[in-house]
Design a protein that fits this description.
The complex is a heterodimer. Chain A is 38% helix and 11% strand. By secondary structure, chain A is α/β, with parallel strands linked by helices. In chain A, helix 11 runs antiparallel to helix 12 (246-255). Chain B has one domain: Cytochrome-c3 Hydrogenase, chain B. The chains are: A alpha/beta, B alpha+beta.
């Protein structure tokens, strides 16, 4: 039986999420043995045409050209899985969505006329049907392996949707908000990183985006009244790599 | 009528980011070479305005998934410059340790996965593994060793969370350091074996007369600190960068190229660091370079793979030296307060000099940011190399010429996501 054909696509991004696949030093050759790396320009100059069985998509949509290219990716792919905060929420570059992109262009480029960009940076799911979204800035490489493995076996990926707070409790990490008075997005942020920041004595800043039904306002209120955080500090915390995801977008705008 | 021939690479493979290459040949003469970058802009320098100075390392890391530590390091040093604080002693040593990890991870990625396939006629590392599994396994082990340093000091391999203006958030425990040191010992042999492997590749004869630019420090091979020097006599403080370097518009391209105001294009990266700091390599790394047949200066960009391997030996050696030193910081970071002012710093990313400039208001909010990554500094030199490389190879059929041109670009390990956000670019795609 032919091996499933894998494609890896890049849109506006830093490359870090597709690099996660190459960072699977112990598993890379096993993955390469189970799939046919049909299209993965970052790693291979052998770029084969579609159709593909599985497409991993990194990055957000920021140009009209990319808005068209993603439609073609969908047409060529049986399953589309988006990886990382850019693809699932628009990424840090979605901060333009709150600003005047023409002013941004003038600030960075001396000849703004050369720059053709959309006013917004949007997640892939705003443009096409996505079969599964893997969160994180960057994604967790073990979760990526689980997603690929689940695809190969025709089952649902086992990626838990609980908060960073739950991961801290499971690790036995002392709460940075309670013990150190640090503002922390742990209660409202999707797990997946293994509650990394609190184990390094700093508050979560939301790399994995909002968990399901997050009570962002209550957390903001608490940071304001109990920790003395300013509205601007709270707004900045929510408006990071997942700023354009609905709950973080709204909370940041309420506070900002 | 003039005979025209166009060599096009529509999507460069085995480089970071989205770029293309156009070569126009007219009457057996190279008329035009364009390294086109169509990676969409993300506007980091614009949205950094209004953010806190403490957020700069976390945000600028997102410019590049392969070299996030470099962005974090240049950012923290620039912010510390703005605040009038110097981080020294064991904290400084641990930053060096972290940077060693990134050099190893990034260099080994490039050597084994992106560059070596060119020399061996393969399209990727998986094909390479089918023929030489033990070699690829060694590369993966070595890459993992680099990633383990970054994962301990930074919290994770990509976009580390432990880098802070003033130091770190947490210093690892003695037990964590000891475990890491143990894992690294085997990496030294793997790094030496890597040099021995790549030195045997066949390199085209292509010595170039470059002006090399890198940091230079009196006592150490440069990572985080030093003066900016060149092989033609430049010697300046990083704060004076903008007086000597300029970004220029060239007629054939919509991309901004960095130039030395006095002399034009220049080269940053492993070849430049090696040429300007050879004597500061560890004895083991110097010996490895000598055994590989490298002189004190290497001017053939195709041999950059050997220099990267030598720098990998150095980075493993240096990481072990720092790990063996007994002294650890008493505090994870130094106290600092923001103040209104300007901060500038340069550090050595795996691909070369990375310069950051910030202006802050009295609350530490960023009011201006300018970031100059290595790839935009090398872009003019890449194109100049290509012109000279192609001229004696015009007799080759298109597909061979195309393959060799791609390889000539990959010599630079270009990082397009990095450079894009700071270049003028034309997003037209043909």
């Amino acid at each position: 039986m032919a091996k499933p054909r894998l494609a890896v696509w890049k849109f506006a991004s830093c490359d870090g999420c597709q690099l996660s696949l190459l960072d699977c030093e112990d598993e890379l050759l096993a993955v390469a043995g189970a799939v046919d790396l049909a299209y993965f320009p970052e790693a291979s100059s052998d770029m084969q045409p579609g159709p593909y069985d599985l497409s991993l998509v990194e990055g957000s949509i920021t140009t009209t050209h990319d808005a068209e290219r993603i439609l073609e990716v969908r047409r060529q792919s049986r399953v589309v899985i988006t990886i990382g905060a850019c693809a699932t929420a628009g990424g840090i570059q979605a901060l333009r969505n709150f600003a005047d992109v023409e002013e941004f262009t003038r600030a960075v480029y001396a000849t703004p006329a050369y720059i053709k960009t959309l006013k917004t940076s949007t997640p892939i799911a705003d443009h096409i049907h996505v079969d599964f979204e893997l969160r994180g800035c960057p994604i967790n490489k073990y979760q990526l392996l689980e997603v690929i493995n689940a695809f190969l076996h025709g089952r649902k990926p086992l990626v838990r949707a609980h908060s960073v707070c739950v991961e801290c409790k499971r690790k036995g990490t002392v709460c940075v908000t309670v013990a150190r008075g640090e503002p922390c997005l742990g209660p409202v942020t999707h797990g997946g990183c293994g509650a990394l920041c609190p184990s390094y004595h700093r508050g979560c800043f939301g790399c994995y985006g909002p968990k399901e039904l997050p009570n962002t306002s209550s957390l903001a209120h608490w940071a304001r009244t109990e920790l003395g955080a300013s509205d601007a500090d709270i707004a900045r915390l929510y408006h990071n790599f997942n700023a354009w995801s609905e709950p973080f977008r709204q909370e940041g705008q309420r506070d900002g | 009528m003039a005979e025209q021939r166009t060599i096009k690479v529509d999507y460069m493979a085995r480089v970071e980011g989205e770029g293309a290459l156009d070569v126009l040949i007219e009457d057996q003469e190279v008329k035009d070479v364009k390294l086109r970058i169509f990676e969409p802009p993300r506007f980091f320098e614009a949205f950094l305005r209004g953010r806190s100075f403490m957020e700069a390392p976390d945000i600028t890391a997102r410019i590049c998934g392969i070299c996030p530590v470099a962005y974090q390091m240049s950012a923290v040093h620039a912010m510390e410059d703005a605040c009038g604080v110097k981080v020294d002693g064991p904290l400084r040593a641990l930053r060096r340790l972290l940077y060693c990890g990134e050099w190893i991870e990034s260099h080994v990625l490039h050597i084994y996965m992106l560059h070596a396939p060119d020399f061996l006629g393969k399209s990727n590392v998986v094909e390479l593994a089918a023929q030489h599994p033990e070699i690829v396994q060694r590369g993966l082990r070595l890459k993992k060793a680099g990633n383990e340093i970054v994962a301990l000091m930074g919290g994770r391999e990509i976009h580390p969370i432990n880098v802070r203006v003033g130091g770190f958030y947490r210093i690892p425990t003695p037990g964590e350091f000891a475990t890491l040191a143990e894992k690294l010992k085997a990496a030294r042999d793997d790094a030496l074996a890597t040099v021995a492997w790549v030195k045997g590749f066949e390199f085209p004869d292509f010595e170039q007369d470059y002006e090399f630019v890198s940091l230079s420090h009196p006592a150490e091979y440069p990572f985080n600190e030093g003066r900016i020097v060149s092989s033609r006599g430049l010697n300046i403080n990083a704060r004076d960068y903008h007086e000597h370097f300029a970004e220029e518009h060239v007629p054939h391209s919509t991309a901004l190229h960095c130039r030395l105001k006095a002399r034009g294009h220049y080269k940053v990266g492993p070849l430049a660091r090696y040429a300007l700091n050879h004597d500061l390599l560890s004895p083991l790394a110097r010996q490895a370079a000598q055994d590989a047949g490298l002189g004190r200066v290497c001017c053939n960009p195709f041999q950059s793979i050997v220099v990267r391997a030598v720098e990998t030996v150095y980075a493993v050696d240096e990481a072990l030296r720092i790990l063996e030193a007994a002294e650890r910081p008493h505090q994870p970071c130094v106290e600092l307060r923001p103040r209104a002012g300007r901060g500038l710093a340069a550090t050595e990313a795996p691909r070369g000099l990375l310069h950051h400039t910030y202006e802050l208001d009295e609350q530490g909010r960023i009011t201006f940011a300018q970031i100059i990554p290595p790839t935009s500094q090398n872009q003019a030199t890449i194109e100049a190399d290509l012109r000279r490389f192609i001229a004696p190879r015009l007799h080759l059929p298109d597909d061979q010429l195309r393959w060799q041109c791609e390889q000539a670009v990959r010599n630079y390990d270009p990082c397009i996501s990095c450079s894009t956000h700071f270049l003028k670019l034309n997003v037209e795609r043909r």
